[in-house]
Amino acid sequence: MNPSRLRLARKRRQCTQRELAELAGLHERAVKAYEAGEYEPTMETMERIQAVLKFPAEFFEGDDLEEPLPDAASFRALTKMSARQRDAALSQGALALHLNKWFERRFELPAASLPDLSDETSPEAASETLRATWGLGELTIRNMIHLLEAKGVRVYSLAVNAREVDAFSMWKGTTPFIFLNCYKSSERSRFDAAHELGHLVLHRQGVPQGPEAEREANRFASAFLMPSGSIHAHVPLFPTVEELVKIKRVWITSVAAVNHRFHELGLIRDWHYRRLCVEIAKRGFRSAEPEEAPRETSLLVPKLLAALQQEGISRARIAAELGIPIAELRELLFGLAMTDIDGGRTEAASRGPGATQPGLHRIK
Q1: What is residue 159's three-state secondary structure?
Q2: pLDDT tens digits for 3-57?
Q3: pTM beyond cutoff 0.90
Q4: How far is it, in rounded angstroms, from Cα 204 to Cα 325?
Q5: Can you list the positions of beta strands (E) in 183-258?
Q6: Which end of the chain has fewer CB within 10 Å, C or N?
Q7: What are 116-139's pLDDT values in tens digits?
């Protein structure tokens, strides 16, 4: 048994050592000894641990997995989550790195093309530079996931039991990763994706945590999704909430985000902005987005799974080769594929400006 894998599986289930011991009918001291590698559990004890953690025996016998460190990951809204939720998300990140390595042994995935923009004068300037570098101009980004994948970012979803975690991102070597909560509205998920992109290009050289880093990533996301030129071309003379609901479709962002961007650019006065904030909250538009946009899905993941299926490699086989439960594979890919690949065909979502198809080559 690999002690580090036992520890990772326990964190993935948001279990303390004491809770695992109680559920498996063991002494807490024994669990601590197993995780410290002092001695191995018996086969019968291991079966009880597996039953609690719901990981197959093969998982505990593998090599060490690369586990993201808390200081290396940028968490959206870190204050909203507990330490065990953060650890559960990081352990899912370790499983994503495991899956990503499996994919990269079989496919040549798009290389990362994210510049280091930490020297830009402001997050807004960094947004303009990145849009110019990627040839986006003032165009609306029709699908953030497609764009990120085309630029070499590996996008995975967060599990149901970590839904308090909005999103997080990290660099692993030269490969950027973003994890998104796919249970949020499409508009909010898009903003989370742009926020994490901001961390990846603004804070690559430092620890991307703290209030100031979060504010910078928010300003970047706002400017990246709603460039000032496009905003000036569409802003109403005296916007109402009804007009915000209509005009948000231009940038596929939330009503609240559009209102904030108008105020940020000085296009509405403070009192008008505050009045709209009150009205947005009164109508419940902060928790339930009006006229929600269609949910974005991956272009890359369905292509990978379809190519594997043609070779007779099902999701169950992928999970078996990785030594993880198939439920874990589903949660990593949840919301990214239109259909379950083990069933019928998978169709990609519609494309638009900024949704370049990622290159994909099978490694023979």
Answers
A1: coil
A2: 999 999 999 999 999 999 999 999 999 999 999 999 999 999 999 999 999 999 9
A3: no
A4: 33
A5: none
A6: C
A7: 999 999 999 999 999 999 999 999
Pairwise CA distance, residues 159 & 336, whole Å: 12
Tokens of 182: 């796919």
**Cβ neighbours of 67 (radius 10 Å):** 18
Tracing tokens 């949704």 back to the chain, one arrives at 355
Look at residue 350 in the predicted model and tell me its pLDDT: 37
CB-based contact 75:170 (threshold 8 Å): no
Q: What is the pLDDT of residues 175-227, one digit of tens each?
A: 999 998 877 788 999 999 999 999 999 988 766 567 888 899 999 999 999 99
From CA 117, how far away is CA 115, in angstroms rounded?
6
Q: Which amino acid is present at 111?
A: A
In order of 39, 163, 249, the CA distances from 335 in angstroms are 41, 13, 21
- Alpha-carbon 164 to chain mean position: 13
pLDDT at residue 364 is higher than 70: no
Residue 208's identity, in one-letter code, is P
Rounded to whole angstroms, how far apart are CA atoms 45 and 304?
38
Contacts for 190 with CB less than 8 Å, ≥ 6 apart: 141, 144, 225, 252, 253, 296
Q: How far apart are CA 164 and CA 178, in angstroms?
A: 16
**Host H or E run for residue 177:** strand 175-180
> Are residues 154 and 96 in contact, defined by beta-carbon separation less than 8 angstroms?
yes
The tokens describing 310, both together, are 């043609």
Closest by alpha carbon to 230, among 142, 144, 138, 141? Answer: 138
